[in-house]
Amino acid sequence: MFSGTLGDSAAGLTQILLGKSAVDSDDVFLQQRHLRPTPRIELGRALIDIAHAAIDLSDGLISDLGHILERSQCSAEVELTALPLSSSILNKYDRTQAEQFALSGGEDYELCFTIPPKSKDELELRLKKLNVPCTCIW
After folding, report:
1. Residue numbers in the chain where pLDDT is lower than 70
2. CB distance 1 to 133 below 8 Å
3. Contact in structure between 135 and 80 (CB atoms under 8 Å)
4. Domain span at 58
5. Which pLDDT score, from 0 to 100, does residue 137 have?
6. DSSP result, 40-103
7. Would you state the pLDDT for residue 138?
8. d(CA 86, CA 129)
9. Dist. CA 117–CA 123, nearest whole Å
10. CATH code (residue 54)
């Protein structure tokens, strides 16, 4: 599972490196996601006793999920259509480019985590309390 949306920071960094001014709310959102990321500290604390594994997505989904899979000696298939992409990234980039940002961009500081099926209801309660959106992509 993943918290928040993925790829926003990489999209914002791309805009910054290209010298693109923030001309609308989508540009502002993407650039701020790179310049001022919001780590999911409270979510991390809420996962301590139910998550089997967790990592922040600082190196990109493929790389960071790979760390969990390697350590767990597991594999995963990622459903690209299930990637949590923000409306801002989809307004500024085509779906393929947005997916590339999400898969390999990094610096989102969202959490990737695994939980046992028996903890699903408890997770939903905790997420509701924290008001943190999370998505399962496999």
Report:
1. 138
2. no
3. no
4. 2-135
5. 78
6. -HHHHHHHTTT-SEEEE-SS-HHHHHHHHHHHHT------GGG----HHHHHHS-HHHHHHHHH
7. 66
8. 22
9. 10
10. 3.90.650.10
